[in-house]
Amino acid sequence: MDLHLTSAQSTAEERAAVDAELGPPDSSWQGGQRQASDTRAAFNDDQRVPRHRILPVLHSLQNRVGWISTGALNYVAVRMDLPPAEIYGVASFYGMFSLQPRPPVVAHVCDDIACFARGSDKLCTELEHRLGSAGSTCSGGRATWLRSQCLGLCERAPAMLVRSAGTQSHEGVLAPASAEAVHFLMNDAVAGRMPAEPDSFSIHTSVPQAATKDAAGQLRLLQRLSRSSSGHLEEYLRFDGYEGLRKSLDLGPEDTLRQLSASRLLGRGGAAFPTAKKWEALFLQRYLLREDSPRAHYVVCNADESEPGTFKDRILMEGDPFAVLEGMTIAAFVTGAKQGYIYLRGEYPLAAKRMQLAIDSAIQSRFLGNNIVGRGLNFNIEIRRGAGAYICGEETALFNSIEGFRGEPRNKPPFPTQSGLFRQPTAVNNVETLVNVPNIIREGGATYARLGTQDSTGTRLFCLCGHVARPGVYETAMGMTLRQLIDLAGGIAGGKTLQAVLLGGAAGAFVSPHELDTPLTFEGTRAIGATLGSGVVMLFDSTVDLRLILLRIASFFRHETCGQCVPCRVGVVRQQESLQRLTKAKPLGSTTEEIAVLREMAQAMRDASICGLGQTAASALESALRRWSLFS
Amino acid sequence: MSDRRAEIDQALDAPQPAIPVPRGPVPLTPPRLARPSVEIKIDGKSVSVAEGSTILDATKQLDIDTPTLCFIESLTPVNVCRVCVVELEGSRTLVPACSRKVEPNMSILTDSERVRLSRRLVLEFLASSVDLSTAPAMQEYMERYGAHPERFGTVCATLAQPVKIDNDLYVRDYGKCVLCYKCVEACGVDAQNTFAIAVAGRGFSAHIATEFDVPLPDSACVYCGNCIGVCPTGALMFKSEYDMRQAGTWDETRQTQTDTICPYCGVGCELTVHEQEGRIVRVTSPLHHSVTHGNLCIKGRFGWQFVQIQPAGQKD
Ligand SMILES: Cc1cc2nc3c(=O)[nH]c(=O)nc-3n(C[C@H](O)[C@H](O)[C@H](O)COP(=O)(O)O)c2cc1C
Ligand code: SF4
Ligand code: SF4
Ligand code: FES
Ligand code: FES
């Protein structure tokens, strides 16, 4: 198109970063050197860089240069034939991209609720003393530190992630972190001495059940991971790996679907939708797929895990990456998808690395690509990394994000099974949901359904964090009570008294110590007005000021709303302001009046917002108001 | 079939025009297929509307006034303002009337407690964060739903900011912007295909921007002014109107509107010329005009200063 650009020029470094992702430009029309043939060139749409490459390109710029300048943006515009205002709109949506100059080394220190319970405020205060306030530069202008939302490392709180931009960019994780260690790591990063591996995976820290012999025997989702978490294909194959896919290929898509249906598996991403129904919708549209039509089906793995307190998907991807791939491949076989995407949270460097290695070796061993295991199935998987936007975990926002648009949710209907990624029928599933699938097919749906309760079958992963003695991911058959689960994790840390449990994350609900006998099932939690959500079980002992936790949650939503619809965009701001007043005991009018306004706002957000974020942004607060009088 | 034949024959028998046209079958527009209708219930009343209509279309048929803000017939619905929400039986949340298509047997409430509460809160949220003084329709709705934005206090976050005046044709006062996305759509694929502006940032700081918020003259803007044409709040305003408002001379009761055809090119866009005290103060185009759908180019929209320049020595 006819682009209008400002006069800002890109640097060689910036062009190299973009070209690393897109390859060198073909002509001066695409930002290359002018050559004689350019005057006789004809272009058509096929030669255009597809818009969905925009996020990888922006990542490449951020990783190499540390920020995205006007000149760099102009070069991206020319290379991709996209208006600069559009690219700016996309880039400015994501927290990870800096549109102002920033030092190459940035430490992101989590001050979210689970880390708060484990001393992140002290850590941040110490960092302020050592390095100056958050956002100020240190290490001779080469580094800075920032406060961050939950980094999904809550079992090792307080957590920190460091990124270092450059020709050799690095990411590294430090958890648990001390101010001294953070400072040390930042200096190392500035000096170019980052460890090769971004993080280490320790089964004993992250999956405490693996240590106890009899518990480990009952694990299913975590079974293989507790025996070997190297992420190698040979290991995977040694422990029943790809048996589910083989069985599925023998059964055919229809019977595979029957098994899945018999398992009554409900999605683990939060909405608890029957997985078989989702896949069946695509299965029924398979007859419309023809070689010569542009119609396609897609399988998407939602690995954007950003709900504060959630880290189970990260552990599955780090410790058992092939199980995710196998689940997706079975999904492809049933739904007729040829292409799959894993939308992986940007803050998960080790998971990204291990998933990519797994994809590469699966392709090599013919578990992905053309003619999978010699059975005529063709399926490829690409990883797309998120860029610091919680909302992109919402399925339709996720599609927009992959497609290269702002990660704003779409209105539903139409649902993803009718119009999803690239407006084609799409099956989108959570990581844990997909990891359940190979087991279900291998053992039969009915066998699986015998685990758990009538309405909540199978096992479930719970993310225990906060003031719990042994934080980590726990797997239990559905139906175990909250009390039993907490006991399994060693009870309250330091033998203190329990004040509250947050179930389901920031979008979930608080429950009180009187409700510990609630069975952890979809129906059990619903009965007490709570939710399993993403499996978060966050404990707070009596030393915690719950008002501060509520305020932090409100700040989280204020930071993470996409800003598209009015009830959520303004509602989350007014909610946070109101909580601030209440916490300072300076309500507008009386406390009762202020709380009445909060309740009205909550109802409007729940009723009138476009997506789940706005609809649940007040639920933790409402659950707390129902249980305690915190502000009188 | 035979009806159609007769129609064609009739057309062939039509009197010869002065300028002869080649004789032969005259292509006729194919007859419209009647769209099947869908039966739904609104506030207890049955109504039958064409398939593919929205709930908003259906409420119009019953003369129910549904407030809208981000909706306009000429652009793709973005359903973001949520002021039009209605209660749909069986739905967990309220649904936007402007974009939700009717389905058989839907049962809808347009004035229930839940609907009134959400509409009121949406209006309060807006009025507490942006300046709605040049959006009279919103003032009316606020009265209807009893909205009291002042109950959020005086120290709440707002979008108040200096007016952007960076060219002679129009000003941008984003302190009035409700982020309805209309201007972005009009600048993009829905009308102009210029893509000078987009939504940038996220959350409460989301805003309409050129790349890196550069001034309009540095951007791709072609000054068609189609964004002004669709802006519901006066955030985008003719410089002429803005100056008069600043001077306190803007008075719509003293204005006349004259429809005419743009003299510049052969497209034939319809112009509505707004005049006050013998001077053109702004130019719009009717939304429902088949040529423009409300859109114009820089010449039709802004190129009328010559009318007001008196050649030397000529009197009124
Ligand atoms: C604000 C928001 C964030 C979400 N984040 C995630 C997420 O990080 N991971 C996830 O699997 N689902 C997330 N979801 C739920 C997805 O929209 C979707 O329901 C889920 O991916 C479907 O997979 P499942 O059927 O396997 O659960 C989120 C939903 C909302 C509203
Ligand atoms: S509810 Fe919030 S996050 Fe969801 S679309 Fe609306 S503004 Fe965006
Ligand atoms: S400037 Fe006007 S048209 Fe554009 S988003 Fe704001 S209110 Fe809507
Ligand atoms: S990593 Fe800090 S709260 Fe999750
Ligand atoms: S008019 Fe329907 S959502 Fe704005």
What does this entry look like structurally?
The complex is a heterodimer of chains A (632) and B (316). Chain A is built from 27 helices and 15 strands. With 632 residues, chain A is an alpha/beta fold. The relative contact order of chain A is 0.09. In chain A, α1 packs antiparallel against α2, α12 packs parallel to α16 and α13 runs antiparallel to α14 (275-283). In chain A, β8 and β9 (377-385) form a beta hairpin. Chain A folds into five domains: 12-91, Orthogonal Bundle (Arc Repressor Mutant, subunit A); 105-190, Glutaredoxin (3-Layer(aba) Sandwich), CATH 3.40.30.10; 223-449, Rossmann fold, CATH 3.40.50.11540; 459-541, Ubiquitin-like (UB roll), CATH 3.10.20; 546-627, Up-down Bundle (de novo design (two linked rop proteins)). Chain B has 316 residues and is of the alpha+beta class. Chain B has a domain at 161-308: Alpha-Beta Plaits. Chain B has helices at residues 2-13, 55-61, 113-129, 136-144, 182-187, 226-230, 239-247, 298-302, 305-308; strands at 37-42, 45-50, 85-88, 95-96, 107-109, 170-172, 198-200, 207-209, 236-238, 255-261, 270-276, 279-284. A five-stranded mixed β-sheet of chain B has the order 2-1-5-3-4, sandwiched between helices. A three-stranded antiparallel β-sheet of chain B has the order 10-11-12. A two-stranded antiparallel sheet of chain B has the order 6-9. In chain B, a hairpin with a 2-residue loop joins β11 (270-276) and β12. Chain B starts with a helix and ends in an 8-residue tail after the last helix.
